[in-house]
Every structure is written in C-alpha cells, then in structure tokens.
Structure to design on (263 residues):
C-alpha cells in the first residue's frame, strides 16, 4: 500500500477535435488532440490540503474530474488510496467525496434534508445510518438550519455548502473540491477555509484537493499548492517555498512569474 493518498504519474488528458460525448467521457483518447493536462506527476500525502491554482483553462478541473473518475486519462497512471482510477473505478468512488464548482445537481423543490437523504440512499447507506450521517454532517458544516428549506430557496452560498455536505456524507478519506468558496461571502470563505484545514484535514485526517482562484485562500488553507498553466505543472511546493524559489515580495508576484515563465 502506498504511503500517499494520491499518486499521479505522467498524467495526460487529451480531448479529440470532434468533442463527441462517448469519446470525451467513456474511453481514453489515444490519437492526437487538444491536451488539457500534460504529463503531470505529483504525490499528495494523507491529511494534506492540496491546492490547485492557475488561469481558466489550465486543466485544474479536468485533473480533479479524473481523480473523481468522471473522466478517463489518456496516458499515465492515477491512484487514489491505492486504487487505480481506470481499472478500479468503483473502489475509487467509495473513498472519494466530490464537490463540483456548481451546486445545481440537487432537486429544487425538495428540502436540503430530502435531497441529502436521496443521495445517501444512492450511495447505499441504510436509512437509519443515512439519517445519522446527514444530521452529523449538517451539524459539522453548520448547515442544520437548511434541512427544512427547499433547495430552490437557498442562497447560492448555502447551496454550495450543501454540496460540500453531500460530498462528506459517506465519510470519505479523500475530498475533492472545485472552487468550494466561490459563492460565499468573505467571512464564510474564511470560516470554511479554517474548517477544511483545522477540522477535516487536521482533526479527521482527510486528504483535500481543492481548486481555487484565490491566492490568499491558498496561502491560508493549503499545506502545498500546484500552479498549472496550459495543462502543465509549472510550480509545486508550499506557498513559502514557491515564493522563495520564484522570488518577489509575495505569492501573487511568484504566481505571475510562474505563468510568464511557462507561457
């Protein structure tokens, strides 16, 4: 068993020019195409909060979707908790919780509780265990007040937090978050960041991979970050290591330098 929660070796993802749904989602594309992830290798330790930064189109979401088994790699090997995302996709799904950037996959007329109960049952949780998990996770994230409110009446920030609750329902060791704080006000962004690092990673030992466009958030929440540009990994390390390696008065200056160097 690997000592890393996530291992990525020479990962490449290419989309064909035709963009047909079967070729995009159901099978790796072996011929030449648009490479949105290019030969990425990295390892993420258990209990680590790992941030993915980069401009739009850098390949961040594609990388997270490969970890979640929503997309298949074109080349390379990816393992989550020791399971191969291609050959052992079902096992990977049991150890991963995924929170997408948009929280619109809920049923709008159902309450937060009813939505969560439905998704818990989809995961195969017995009814009694589902109720316990939902109650505990809502309390953990501070969302107990949303249990009786129809999803369509929740604010965008509350919807996003409910998506995080859904990702945590099965108590997965690995949590994948695509811009989890983008719809939250500044105070809630700080609170959620503290919750991710202090409680989920620190107290519960979960491995978190999060996409963010906020350098301040990455610096405050993440143990390490990877900066991506045009599908490539252009910088990797703690925020302090990257700033020291690339130079500049702050992480923002180092980030800009990393993008200029590889553009």
């Amino acid at each position: 068993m690997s000592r890393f929660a996530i291992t990525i070796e020479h990962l490449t993802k290419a989309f064909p020019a035709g963009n047909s749904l079967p070729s995009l989602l159901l099978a790796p594309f072996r011929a030449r195409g648009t490479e949105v992830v290019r030969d990425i290798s990295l390892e993420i330790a258990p209990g680590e909060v790992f941030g993915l930064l980069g401009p739009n189109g850098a390949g961040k979401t594609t990388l997270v979707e490969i970890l979640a088994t929503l997309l298949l790699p074109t080349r390379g090997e990816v393992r989550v908790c020791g399971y191969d995302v291609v050959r052992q996709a079902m096992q990977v799904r049991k150890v991963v919780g995924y929170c997408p950037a948009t929280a619109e996959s809920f049923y709008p007329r159902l309450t937060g509780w009813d939505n969560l109960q439905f998704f818990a049952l989809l995961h195969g949780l017995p009814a009694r265990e589902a109720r316990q998990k939902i109650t505990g996770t809502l309390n953990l994230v501070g969302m107990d007040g949303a249990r009786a409110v129809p999803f369509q009446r929740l604010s965008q920030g509350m919807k996003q937090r409910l998506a995080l609750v859904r990702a945590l329902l099965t108590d997965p060791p690995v949590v994948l978050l695509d811009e989890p704080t983008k719809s939250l006000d500044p105070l809630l962004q700080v609170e959620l960041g503290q919750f991710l690092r202090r409680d989920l990673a620190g107290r519960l030992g979960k491995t978190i991979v999060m996409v963010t466009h906020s350098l301040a958030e990455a610096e405050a929440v993440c143990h390490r970050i990877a900066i991506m540009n045009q599908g490539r990994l252009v910088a990797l390390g703690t925020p302090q290591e990257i700033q020291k390696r690339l130079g500049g008065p702050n992480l923002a200056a180092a980030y800009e330098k990393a993008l200029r160097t590889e553009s």
